[in-house]
Amino acid sequence: MALTSKELSFIEDMMGLEQVMVAKYKAAEAQTQDAVLREKMKNAADRHQQHFDKLMGHLN
User: Fold this and answer.
1) Nearest to 15 by CA among 46, 42, 39, 51
2) What is the pLDDT of residue 58?
3) In this predicted structure, what is the pLDDT of residue 60?
4) How far apart are CA 42 and CA 23, in angstroms?
5) Which domain, by its residues, includes 11?
6) Using an 8 Å Cβ cutoff, are 24 and 44 in contact?
7) What span, in angstroms and rounded, lies between the C-alpha atoms of 57 and 18?
8) How far is the C-alpha of 14 from the C-alpha of 42, rounded, in Å?
9) 12-60: pLDDT as tens digits
10) DSSP string of the chain, one letter each residue
11) The total number of structural domains that make up the chain
12) Rounded to whole angstroms, how far apart are CA atoms 36 and 20?
């Protein structure tokens, strides 16, 4: 089933937001000295990357 232009636009918008979140969490991870907090930031970045990848799958 083909996606409508509105659905495609929504997916593209969400992918952009996920990319921003990945970048923000990676930046926070790099600036954090606390190992536990660094791990939490890494996990959050990984989760948002997974969301991005899943959305990308809808476009393929």
Assistant:
1) 51
2) 85
3) 79
4) 11
5) 5-59
6) no
7) 14
8) 20
9) 999 999 999 999 999 999 999 999 999 999 999 999 999 999 999 988 7
10) -PPPHHHHHHHHHHHHHHHHHHHHHHHHHHH---HHHHHHHHHHHHHHHHHHHHHHHHH-
11) 1
12) 22
